[in-house]
Amino acid sequence: MSLRRFTLAALTSALMVGSLPASAATELLNVSYDPTRELYVEYNQAFNRYWQSKGHEAVKVQQSHGGSGKQARSVIDGLRADVVTLALASDIDALYQNGKLIPENWQSRLPNASTPYTSTIVFLVRKGNPKGIKDWDDLVKPGVEVITPNPKTSGGARWNFLGAWAYAQKKFANDEAKTRAFVTQLYKQVPVLDTGARGSTITFVNNKIGDVLLAWENEAFLALKEEGGDNLQIVVPSLSILAEPPVTVVDKNVDRKGTRELAEAYLNYLYSEEGQRIAAKNFYRPRNAKVAAEFAKQFPTLELVTIDGAFGGWKSAQPKFFGDGGIFDQIYRAK
Amino acid sequence: MSRRTSPVIPGFGLTLGYTLLYLSLLVLIPLGAMFLKTTALSWSEFIAVITDTRVLAALQLSFGTALAAALINGVVGTLLAWVLVRYTFPGRKIMEAMIDLPFALPTAVAGIALTALYAPSGLIGQWATDLGFKIAYTPLGISLALTFVTLPFVVRTLQPVLADIPREVEEAAACLGANPWQSFRYVLLPALLPAWLTGFALAFARGVGEYGSVIFIAGNMPMKTEILPLLIMVKLDQYDYTGATAIGVLMLVVSFILLLLINLLQRRIATP
Amino acid sequence: MSSSLSSSAPFSLSKSQGRPLGQRLLILSAWLAFGLLLLLPLYVVLSEALKLGFGTFFSAMLEPDALAAMQLTLIAVGISVPLNLVFGVAAAWCVSKYEFRGKSLLITLIDLPFSVSPVIAGLIYVLMFGAQGWFGPWLLDRDLQIIFAVPGIVLATLFVTVPFVARELIPLMQEQGTQEEEAARLLGASGWQMFWHVTLPNIKWGLIYGVVLCTARAMGEFGAVSVVSGHIRGLTNTLPLHVEILYNEYNHVAAFSVASLLLVMALFILLLKQWSESRINRQRHNSAEE
């Protein structure tokens, strides 16, 4: 009877699950955000060479990418990340607040407040810049459509939002009402609000929606590289925000899995010259002065404000702007 | 023939027990967990969550687009079912086989395909842009995606019923002097209505909860093109588990009521 | 979902000549709607996939992450379909052969996963088995992992495919009634003998039809699986999730290539379905003649 044979085959395949690879000590899970895919593909290979040269076994680094907030939640819900490399500090703070997966002072454990590389927010426009976009002011001109992801779900979008805010704050000399009106107008001109930075890039580049994409500098460079530069160009505004994507070891997970040494080496190597060079090659601004000098031509200079300097750090900016009922919610409710 | 419990057929206890156990483990207990999670909210808090303006907007959008899709399918599906049952024509077999495609096609694939089709750079999107309107990233695009995903429902519920109506009935009506519209209105419609409503309600229920195919084409703007399932995701990503489950409970209750109505309706069809 | 076992021989009173105008218009508009709503999206998937020729098309499918995703999808299908098959037979048996209180409620419960939003289907398992969930700490102590691992993906797939087999069998078994089984029992057959020799042959094709639909849905589930997957490349990505990842990596062509693989699988499944359907109709036809 064919049915019986079918059942047998099904049971055999059910048994296969039992034989799936159990996690060995030579595996490492790096849970990261959207635009770092290409960076870590290259970095993982370099780290592997380094790690093996130190007399260790080869390590299989597994990658998971997605919106920064969503990735943090997955780790809180039990995704067993050894290290997280997310878009902003408040998403990693959540690992402490929900479930105490890391100590409160996690950010002081590595140099530069645990951010081995930085980036900023720039504009990506269509070739020839048909709408003549030069600075944040031009984004609120009538008829300009702005593409940016949803700050509630995307880390990059929060940097975008704060970049616009910082610019308006300076322009209106700290007049909060005017600043808010400016940012509100900006978001009125957003036709699609994707859930992640990569989704926005696809919307802008492939589906050809909008006149300007607010993007991570690295994301903009990458889009240009993938596109060949035939249809797009980068516009650097007069002022932007220094985006600092941090990294940390997830203590609870590495201690259970016995991977602490490996995980720490993995993150430390990001600060090495080779690690910094790979970051720079993937369009992240390196922290290391020597590497930064090597790549100085690649990164335009512009006035950069920091989250700590202009907004008093994520601990106060996150609830004020992006919390439930925060400024972003108010902007959308008012519409 | 009576359908009373037959004492000679064994296995009632076994099968019912197994059915209940399986359903409990897989469906009831997990769904119960969601209800329990929501009890962390008081009634007034629960009401506050689901009457929040953003939730209301998503509610309106999800139900509105699902309704629109179900209505489109109510018309197109009836047409397709009618043509498939009543006529022979070239390619009928192909059409018959492929009607179920939206069931078999992964929703993510449907999502990216429809976005590629309806985005301003796409095949149909281009054409719409020339005419001065947008499809992708508007409620229209969401409705079209839902129309695709729920297309088979009305067709598949109508087909058996249509096939069972003998053609003589219409011919008799025609002999008695009814015009085609009258014979449709007074003969076919009453017979088809329960099945049509079932298909319509199934399509509607499925459309309200659909995620994969919509997420690519929706545009996801709060208050404008943000569907309920996405709002659940957004709330989750802000660690607002109770808020997310509150919306989940609301959707669950709605789909349960809809299904119960459908099943009662089908019982009425079975026992006229 | 409903039984589509209809499509008995259509009324073929007209050849293509001499067809009334109204009929022609109806057929024409049916084709138009069918083409616009169904065929065009298909065409888009295939044309995007083959944009850069067959070389890239096949290399996208044979890439290790794609193969790993394929394997995981097959595992999820291989577990969820047989389990739901057994459940479907049991549920259809008790619903169709007996009368009892609360039957409508039971049928509604069987149907429920079908109209529950996939996002909710994923969410409930996060609430149960997530680190913050009911069983989270218990699982953690024993180093067991359910969500963000294969068991979670299987569970989510199981949930969304619960109703398929049962829904196909219930109407079929109701229609067949209990007379043949009663006769078998009176002739001295045991319960199992009766099931294997009388019931099963009668419902065989309906069963296959249900399994086919169940397989299709299990293969293609996206929302529910996406919530519980964790998106670890080469480890917890199913084929539909892999499509999304490729799409998000500027790898448009590869995304559509894998999508078209899923599409071809879907078409193959429809073929199987069509075949089982024709067998059901033939069976019905025969039994009607007896």
TrEMBL record, chain A:
GO terms for biological process: sulfate transmembrane transport. It holds the Pfam family SBP_bac_11. GO terms for molecular function: molecular carrier activity; sulfur compound binding. GO terms for cellular component: periplasmic space. It is found in: Periplasm. Keywords: Periplasm, Signal, Transport. Its main location: periplasm. Residues 1-24 form the signal peptide. Transmembrane segments: none annotated. InterPro entries: Sulphate/thiosulphate_BS (IPR034408), Thiosulph/SO4-bd (IPR005669). Belongs to the prokaryotic sulfate-binding protein family. PANTHER family: SULFATE-BINDING PROTEIN. This is Sulfate transport system substrate-binding protein. It comes from Azomonas agilis. The lineage of its organism: Bacteria, Pseudomonadati, Pseudomonadota, Gammaproteobacteria, Pseudomonadales.
Automatic annotation (TrEMBL), chain B:
Keywords: Membrane, Sulfate transport, Transmembrane, Transmembrane helix, Transport. It comes from the Bacteria. Signal peptide: none annotated. It holds the Pfam family BPD_transp_1. InterPro entries: CysT_permease (IPR011865), MetI-like (IPR000515), MetI-like_sf (IPR035906), Sulph_transpt2 (IPR005667). GO terms for molecular function: ABC-type sulfate transporter activity. The chain crosses the membrane at residues 12-36, 56-85, 97-119, 131-155, 186-205, 241-265. SUPFAM superfamilies: MetI-like. PROSITE patterns: ABC_TM1. Its main location: membrane. The keyword Membrane applies. It is found in: Cell membrane. GO terms for cellular component: plasma membrane. Residues 59-262 form the ABC transmembrane type-1 domain. It is a multi-pass membrane protein. Belongs to the binding-protein-dependent transport system permease family. CysTW subfamily. Part of the ABC transporter complex CysAWTP (TC 3.A.1.6.1) involved in sulfate/thiosulfate import. Probably responsible for the translocation of the substrate across the membrane. The complex is composed of two ATP-binding proteins (CysA), two transmembrane proteins (CysT and CysW) and a solute-binding protein (CysP). This is Sulfate transport system permease protein CysT.
TrEMBL record, chain C:
Coiled coil: none annotated. GO terms for molecular function: ABC-type sulfate transporter activity. The keyword Transmembrane applies. It is found in: Cell inner membrane. One of its GO terms (cellular component) is plasma membrane. InterPro entries: CysW_permease, MetI-like, MetI-like_sf, Sulph_transpt2. It is a multi-pass membrane protein. Keywords: Cell inner membrane, Cell membrane, Membrane, Sulfate transport, Transmembrane, Transmembrane helix, Transport. Residues 70-271 form the ABC transmembrane type-1 domain. Pfam families: BPD_transp_1 (PF00528). The chain crosses the membrane at residues 25-46, 66-93, 105-126, 146-166, 207-232, 252-272. Part of the ABC transporter complex CysAWTP (TC 3.A.1.6.1) involved in sulfate/thiosulfate import. Probably responsible for the translocation of the substrate across the membrane. The complex is composed of two ATP-binding proteins (CysA), two transmembrane proteins (CysT and CysW) and a solute-binding protein (CysP). NCBIfam families: 3a0106s02, permease_CysW. PANTHER family: SULFATE TRANSPORT SYSTEM PERMEASE PROTEIN (PTHR30406), SULFATE TRANSPORT SYSTEM PERMEASE PROTEIN CYSW (PTHR30406:SF1). This is Sulfate transport system permease protein CysW.
